[in-house]
């Protein structure tokens, strides 16, 4: 029985309908919502109408298109676009039915009130709650920045030159603007909607009713688009890691202290000369080994979070995997069989960690440059959120000691790099089906996903 499942409690199905002109960051927001909800085990999926439109064009053998295609007076263009919306909606309905979807996101551009009312009608007929999410932006600099970031790399402009792509795209926006009708608190008073004005300078909420809707609202309120780096590190090698014991609150080993002393230098090197004065915020858990690891960092803002503490191994706290295998063989096997759901006697599961990390994720979205020093299981869950790693894989990811991981979220992917401290440490990686530590046996590690192979993923 899942501990946390909004959908089971409320039995709701929601469709988030994106509203806004092109280059307003709609797809980015849509994808982030899907990633966040999936991480919380809420089944969600994005249906991008542009993708359907491109597939239709391809099928009809219409090659490269320019802005004229988006002129409301161009019958060919209108035909494809209307068909694309219908197909996307149809697929979404099937997905709600066949796969028990909970939150579908319709990522479309055409935003007339008339069109919205049609969508509302279809959704209501299928007992799906519509919630409109508008990204409204009249700050031309923001728009141009967004065009440069993503649209000029859009599949519609493959091979085009940058100048042409930008101008053509601006023309396309102008054509959409002719018909655009923004969400309005009096005219649309009966609809559920969120309107973000110039990213998050102003947020207008209307008729937000269910718990699930309010989670989505709270999440998008925390998003920002400033460039930043997120550093993640495990604590330095601990005394328990030397003896292979889990849990506890032990001190760093001698090599762990060496990592702590080297960490400031690793961070500086990674920031680069021009950013060397950047002030990072540092978060640790409440356990001694993470605080000791942070103790040489020169930054003033250091915060301890109970929510970042290591997975609670309950009755197994302080034992080695071998001892667990001997004393609780059934538990040992149950954990290998479903590591995500397995909850230690009197302790926690990976799913439990994700639940307690939710406020951390919210706060993390608000933060700029940050360094988080925490524990293996917690780090796996944080990493899974940023890199969209599926639940069944995340507990098996290898995250070695004495390695600093840097994540740089970009418009459509996250760039990962890792910086090894070159200080030896024991391997604390346990593969499936053994109580031995270490990554010696590569043949069984199909499920263990090494972080290096995982870099630069486009979601
Ligand atoms: C379409 O774009 C491709 C590059 O992706 C280019 O080689 C081709 O010439 C273009 N075709 C037309 C009709 O503009
Ligand atoms: C959007 O859809 C409506 C109704 O289907 C249509 O009348 C309108 O021309 C479309 N707008 C644009 C910009 O294509
Ligand atoms: C909202 O719904 C109420 C009751 O169904 C109706 O009387 C009212 O006219 C609607 N308002 C708008 C702006 O559509
Ligand atoms: C490393 O040691 C800490 C205790 O200091 C423990 O919580 C953690 O589970 C250990 N890592 C592994 C995977 O053994
Ligand atoms: C950790 O080190 C401190 C100070 O050196 C010592 O007082 C404490 O007992 C140590 N804790 C453990 C669990 O070894
Ligand atoms: C970082 O903080 C220090 C002291 O808190 C301050 O002197 C410095 O100017 C800050 N650096 C930047 C780049 O803001």
Automatic annotation (TrEMBL):
Enzyme type, top EC level: hydrolase
EC number: 3.1.3.46
Segments of this protein annotated with the region Disordered: 430-459
6-phosphofructo-2-kinase domain residues: 6-227
InterPro entries, sorted: 6Pfruct_kin, 6Phosfructo_kin, His_Pase_superF_clade-1, His_PPase_superfam, P-loop_NTPase, PG/BPGM_mutase_AS
GO MF annotation, one: ATP binding
Record CDD domains: HP_PGM_like (cd07067)
One Pfam family matching this protein: His_Phos_1
Recorded superkingdom: Eukaryota
UniProt keywords, alphabetically: ATP-binding, Hydrolase, Nucleotide-binding
GO BP annotations listed: fructose 2,6-bisphosphate metabolic process; fructose metabolic process
Extent of Polar residues compositional bias: 434-459
Binding site for substrate: 234-241, 289
Listed GO CC annotations: cytosol
Similarity remark: In the C-terminal section; belongs to the phosphoglycerate mutase family.
Annotated protein name in UniProt: fructose-2,6-bisphosphate 2-phosphatase
Organism expressing this protein natively: Scheffersomyces spartinae
